[in-house]
Task: structure prediction
Amino acid sequence: MSESNTSPLLSVENVTKRFPGVTALNQVSLTLAEGEVLALIGENGAGKSTLMKILAGVQLPDEGQIRVAGVPVRLDSVQTAQANRIALIHQELNLSGNLDVGANIFLGREPIKRGLIDKKKIREDSVALLARVGLKVSPDTIVDALPIGQQQLVEIARALSVDARVLIMDEPTSSLSQHETERLLKVVKDLRSRGVSVIYISHRLGEVRELADRVTVFRDGANAGDLSRDEITHDRMVQLMVGRDISQFYARKPHQPGDVALQVSGLETPANLGHRLSFSVRAGEIVGISGLVGAGRTELLHVLFGVDAAVSGTISVDGQVVRLRSPGDAIQAGIALVPEDRKQQGIILEMAVRTNIGLPGLKQHQKTGGFLNRHQEGKDSAEMIARMRIRTPNERQVVQFLSGGNQQKVVLGKWLAMKPKVLLLDEPTRGIDIGAKQEIYALMEELAEQGVAILFVSSEMEEVIGMSDRTLVMHEGRITGELTRDELTEESIMQLATGNVGTPA
Amino acid sequence: MKKNLGILSILLVVFMATAFGSDSFFTPYNLFNLVERSSLYGIIGIGVAFVIITSGIDLSIGSLIGLVAVVFPYIVVDRQLSLGMGLLTILGLSLVVGIVHGLLITKLKLQPFVVTLCGLMIYRGLARWLVSDRTMGYGNESFASLKVLVGNVSQLPGCASLPGAKHVPVAFLILVSLGIVAAVFLNKTIYGRYLLALGRNEQAARFSGINTTKMIVLAYVICSLISGLGGLLFALDYGSIQPDSFGNFYELYAIAAAVLGGCSLRGGEGSVFGIILGAALMRLLMNSISMLGIDDQLEPTVIGFVILIGVVVDQLVKRIAAHRRAVLQARQASS
Amino acid sequence: MKKNLGILSILLVVFMATAFGSDSFFTPYNLFNLVERSSLYGIIGIGVAFVIITSGIDLSIGSLIGLVAVVFPYIVVDRQLSLGMGLLTILGLSLVVGIVHGLLITKLKLQPFVVTLCGLMIYRGLARWLVSDRTMGYGNESFASLKVLVGNVSQLPGCASLPGAKHVPVAFLILVSLGIVAAVFLNKTIYGRYLLALGRNEQAARFSGINTTKMIVLAYVICSLISGLGGLLFALDYGSIQPDSFGNFYELYAIAAAVLGGCSLRGGEGSVFGIILGAALMRLLMNSISMLGIDDQLEPTVIGFVILIGVVVDQLVKRIAAHRRAVLQARQASS
Amino acid sequence: AESDSQSGGGEAKPKVAYVTNGIASFWVIAEKGAMDGGKKFNADVNVLMPANGVEDQKRMCQDMLAQGIEGIAISPIDPDNQGDLLAEIAQHTKLITHDSDAPNSDRLCYIGVDNYTAGRMCGALVKEAMPEGGSVIIFVGRLGQANARLRRQGVIDELLDRDPDPTRYDEPGAGEIKGAKYSVLDTRTDGFDFGKAKANAQDAIAKYDDLGCMVGLFAYNPPLMLDAVREANKIGKIKIVAFDEEAASLQGIVDGDVYGTVVQNPYKYGYESVRVLAALARGDESVIPEGGFMDIPARQIRKDNVDEFWTELKRLTAVGLPAPAATDDEPVAEENGEEKTN
Ligand SMILES: Nc1ncnc2c1ncn2[C@@H]1O[C@H](COP(=O)(O)OP(=O)(O)OP(=O)(O)O)[C@@H](O)[C@H]1O
Ligand SMILES: Nc1ncnc2c1ncn2[C@@H]1O[C@H](COP(=O)(O)OP(=O)(O)OP(=O)(O)O)[C@@H](O)[C@H]1O
Ligand SMILES: [Mg+2]
Ligand SMILES: [Mg+2]
Result:
C-alpha cells in the first residue's frame, strides 16, 4: 500500500511495438492511478488497441517497460495479466458463439466443484452480472442467437466477472445504442467508486467528457498530450488527436429534396414477422433510422439490399417496383449498402485496397468474354483513394493493415464507384475516429447534394440528430415514429425507441 | 440427446425394416456380431471427434491403425519381447504420433488436413517396410490373454456366471466406458469446455487465457491414443494383418460416424452418444444389406446415401426450428 | 511464380539427385513416361484446385474417375452404342455430379467434406454395381481413335513429321492447354476474381453483389468435368479397369498436388503452375524410388515426408519474409 | 451377393456361400461356375467378394452364418492367421476351402491347386521363354495376401531350382536374388492401383536395359506389362509370362507377344465347390475326395493351346447361356478342355 501512493498503480514507459509494415507504437508512455478513469483517445491506427493488447498479455512489446504498483512486470501471457488483475474488453467481439452466455462469461475461469465445472454457480453469478449490464437474456442462451449489440454486453459482463484492479475497455460502446451506453457509463462510475481503475477507449467524445478524470491522447503511435479533468473539452481533444481543429462538425446545408427515390410499402422482414414497414426517401434526402440494439434496423437494410428476402411488401426505386432476390439485383436497381459488420461483410481483409474497391464494378466494366477491365479498376481505385483521402501506402496495400477508419472508407469507396441512387449506411461511423467521421459526414452531405437518397442507421444519437433531415425510430421491428429535423431531440427519440408511442410524431 | 433424434430415428427404421425383412437378423449371434463391429468403429469415431471438435481433422487414423497392428506382433513375436513391452511400444508410438501432429499444427501453423494426409502416407509405408509386406498374425499364444478383449463378457475373470454375459461383446463394454469418460470430459470438465470454445473461436479462447496450443495438442494425442487402442482391438479381432491394406479408409468411417453423430467439421460441436449412433448405423446398414440379400456391390452407395440423408435431415430440422423460433418471437412481439 | 520457388527447388534437387544416381533416369523413354504420368495427375490437380480455392474440397474425384472409366466402355461395348454417345454420357455424368455437389453445398449449406465423402462412396458403389465388378477393358477397336490421347504427339494427325514429336506425350499438350485456360480464367476474368474473393470471405463477396451460389456450383462443375476428363485419360492409358479399385485415393493425390502447389485449404489462393509442379514432384518421387532401387514398401513414406517438408519450408519462408519486413521497418523507423 | 433363386426340383434348395479372397475378373469366372453349379445341383448360391480384405471376409461369413447358411466354400486370404474365423464357420456349418487351402483348419476338403505349385509352373514357363537364362522381374498387386506370396515364392524357387518349400520367403526389400542361370532383380507391388502397376512396368523397362523377362502374378498385371513393353518397342526383347486368363493376356499369347500364362480353373473351383457343398448339405459325405484334396491342377497356356482354351473359356463364361449340364463325375472344362458337356 505504502508503495502505491508513491508510484501509480500502472505505468507504461517508452513502449514500442512494430508490425510488418507499421510501427504501431513508438516510445509511448502512460500512467494510471488507483480508482481513476483514464480515457485514451486517438485517431484510427493511433495504437490504442495495440497498447491495450500488450497490457492484457496478448502481445509483447518490442521495447519499453511496464510497472504495476511500481514493480516491473513482464506480461507475457493472458494469465500473467490476470494474475496482475488486469482485464481487457477487446475492441472486436471475442466470444465462442457455440457456447451459452454463462460459459462465455466464465470462459477460462470456470468455478470447479469436485473436479467438474460448477454450472449452478456459473448460472447464478451470470444472472447477477447480466443484470448489472442490463442484458435481459438467460445465461443459457447460445451466444450465436444474440445480435451484435447484445453480444457486446456479454463481453462487458465477462470483464466485470474478473475481479480486476485495472479494467480496460476498448471501444465498449461502439455497437451499443444510447440506452445501453448510459447504463454502461453508470457501471463504470460504480466501478471507480469501488477503487477500480479503468482505461476507457472511445471515439465518442461525449462519453469521454462525461466519464474521464484524465485523458491521454495518441497520434500516429506516439503520445500527443494529456488533459486533466478541467481541460477536457471537445475542441481540445480534437485538437490533440487530429492536430488541427475541426470547425462545424456536421456540415449540413438545407437543400430541396427531389422526387421519391426509395419507396417502401408494407415491408415485412424475416427476423421480425408480423410488422409491416412503410416509408420513403427522396433523392437528396438524408433519413436516419434510430432505435435500440436489436430493433430491426440492420434487418431492414438487409432486406432493402436483397441479402434477406422480404416476406411481403413492395420496394420501388424511382417509381419502379424492384424485386430484390440478391444484392446483385439491388445493385442493378441502384442501391448500395455499407454494412454494419465491416470485417465480415464490407471488405475482404486479405485483398488489396484496389481489388476491394473494384469488386462490385467488375461485372459492369467487364470486357467481352468476361475479362477483367484492369484499366477501369485502377482508375476507380485511384479516384476513390484520392476522394476519400484513404491513408494507404499504395493501392496494392492489403486492407487488413489499414486502420478501422480507413477500412470503412474503402467500403464507402467501393460503393461510390458504383454511383448508386440509394445509399444505405448501417452504423457508418462505428469505431471510426473523429477526423474520419467528419470526412464521412462531409461525404454524405456531398452525395445528398448530388441527389443520392441516403438512409442511414445509427445508434449514436448525436450524429442522427446532426445529420438527418428526417428520422425514423424503430422499436422491436416496428417503426414507432418519424421525427422531422426540428422535432429531433434525444428525448423525443428515446420516447419512441423505448416503445412509448403517443408522443407527437 | 435431442439433437440426435434424426439419426436415432433412421437407425430404428433401418433396424425394424431389417428385422422385419430377415428372420436371421434378430438373432443373438447376429446381434452380437453387429454390436461388436459397431463398438470397434464407435471407439475410433470417438477418437476422431476430439480433433473434429477443435475444427481439425485426422486422416492418418487408418494408417496408424495399420502400423500399430503390425508393430505389436513384430515386437512380441518377431523380436521376442514381452507382451508388456509390445503394449508399451504401441502406446508410445500413438503418443508420439499425436504429439507430432499437434505440434506441427499449432507451432508451425500447418493445416490439419495436410499434416495428417502426410501421416496417412508415412505410417502406411513404415508398416509395410517394417515387415516387408509379410502378413502378421495374432495366432501366437502370447496374445491369448488379450483375446478376451474381443470376446464376450462371460470370458472376463469372474463374469462367467453373469446372466446373458455370453451375449455381450467385451468391446461393447470398452466402448461404453470410453464413451462415458469422453462425454464427461467434454461436457463436465474445463478441458472439454476449452476444446469446444477454441474449436469455434480459437482467438477468443486464447484471449480468455486458455493455452490453446496445449489443448489442441491434447486433442490430437487423445485421437491417436484411441486410434492405437482401436488398432489393437481390430487386430485382435481379425487376427490377420495385411500391412499394405489393414485400416485403409477407416479414418473416413470414423469421420463419417462423427459427422452423422452431429459433429460439425467447423468445430465446436459434438455429441459422444451421436457418434456411437453414427458408427452403429453404418455397421447396421452393411449387416442389413447382406441380411436382405441386397447386391453387395451397392453397399458403399447405400451407406453414402444414408449418410447424406442423415445430414440433410439434420440440416432441415435445424432450419425449421429456427423458422419456428422467428415466428414465435414475432407473435410475442405483436401480442 | 515466386511463391512456387520452394517446391520448384525441391523438384530440381530430386531430379538432379536421381539423374546423378541412375543413368537410366535421364533417358527419352523414362522422361516420356514421367511427363505423361505427371500430366495425367496434374490435370485432376487443376480440377480440384477450383474447389479448394472456394475453400471447399472434393473427396469424390477418385470414385468419379472410377465410375467414368467403367461407364464409358459399358455404353460403347456392352450397350453397343456409339463412341459419341459414350462421350456424351460421361460428360453428362460429370456435369450432373458437379451440379449436385454444388447445390447441396450452397443451397442446403452442407459441408463440402461431407457431401463429397458421400459421393466417394456412392459413385464407387455405382461403378461396381453397374458391371457387377467385372473388369472393363479398352481393348475394343472402337476406342482406337481415342488412344492417341495417351500416345505421343507424332501420332496426332499431321504432326508425324514434327521434330521430337515422338518424345512429347499428347497428355502433356492437354495439360498445358488446360493449364493456360485455367490460369487465364483464374487471373484474367471476373469469374476467377469472384472465386478468389468468395474463397476468402463469402459473405463479403455476396454483399458485393457476387452471386456466390452460382460461382461455387460452377467451381464444383469444373472440378467434376476435369475429373471426368481425367478418368477418360487414365482409363485409356491403363486399358483395363477394376471397378472396385480404379481411382482409389486419386483425390488425395490431386489435393496433395494442389496443396504442394501453394493452394491453401482455407481458400482464396492457388497457382496453376504450382499445382502442375506439385503433381510432377510426386510422380518424380515414385519414379526416382524405382530408379534408385529404394525399397518399394517405403514409397508412401518418402512421398509423405517430402510433401510435409514442402509445406513446412513454404511456411518458414513466409515467416522469414514477414520477419525481414518487420526488421526493415524498424531500421527505417530508428533511422 | 447375387442370389440364384430359380426354382429347382421339388426338394428344398440348400443355401450355400462361395466366398472369394477379393474382387477380380478371376473370381467373376468362378462366380459363373458357382452359379452354374447352383443350377445344376439345385442349390441357392451366394457369391461373396470381399472388397476390404480379411475384415470383409469375416463380416460376410458371419452374416452368412447368421442366415443359417448350409455350407461355405472360402478362399482364405491368410490361412495361417484366420484360424478363429475358420473354426467359427466349421463349428456352425460345413466348411470347405478353395483356391487357397487352410490345412490346419477343420475344413472338410480343399478344392484347387495351391498357389506355390502354380507359381513353380509359372517359373517353368519363364525357363522355357528364356532357355539360356537371364534376369527376371516380378509384378504383383499386393504381397499382403498369401496367394500372392506363394506364387512369387514358387516362381523364385523354380528359377533357382530350389526344392519345394512353401514356407520359404525371400523378402522383397532384400534386393536381387541371384541364381545359377536366372536372377530375380526385384518385386514391385502396386496395391491394385493400375496406374502404379503400369508405371512399375515402365520404370523397370527404363531401369534394366538387359531385362530378360517380366512376370505378372495378378490378372491385371500382364496386360499393363504388355502395354508398357509395346510402347517401348521391346516386344520379343523382353519376354512376358503371365498369370490367370485376362483376355488381353490371352490375346498377347495369340499374337506371340506373351510367351504363356498359368491358369487355374476358377470356373471349376466355383462349380465343384457348389457341387460338394450341395451334396454335403444333403448329408452326402461321399463327395469328399480322399485325402480331403480335390486337385484341379493349374495349366500352362502357350501359343499351341491358347485358342482352344480361350474358346472353351468364352463358352463357359458367356452370359445368359444355359448351365452346362455336367454330370457329377464328369465336370465341365477338363484340363485338356476336350470334354463336351452333355
Ligand atoms: N496484427 C497486426 N499486424 C500488422 N499491423 C497491425 C496489427 N495490429 C495492428 N496493426 C497496425 O498497428 C497500427 C495501430 O493499430 P491499433 O489497432 O492499435 O490502432 P487503434 O488506435 O486501436 O485504432 P482504432 O481506433 O481504429 O481501433 C495500425 O496501423 C494497424 O494497422
Ligand atoms: N444473427 C442473428 N441471429 C438471430 N437473430 C438475430 C440476428 N441478428 C438479428 N437478429 C434479430 O433480428 C432483430 C433485429 O436485429 P438487428 O441486428 O437488425 O437490430 P439492429 O436494430 O440493427 O440492432 P444492432 O444492429 O444495433 O444490433 C433482433 O430482434 C434480433 O433478435
Ligand atoms: Mg482499436
Ligand atoms: Mg444493426
Notes: The first helix of chain A runs from residue 2 to 6. The radius of gyration of chain A is 23 Å.
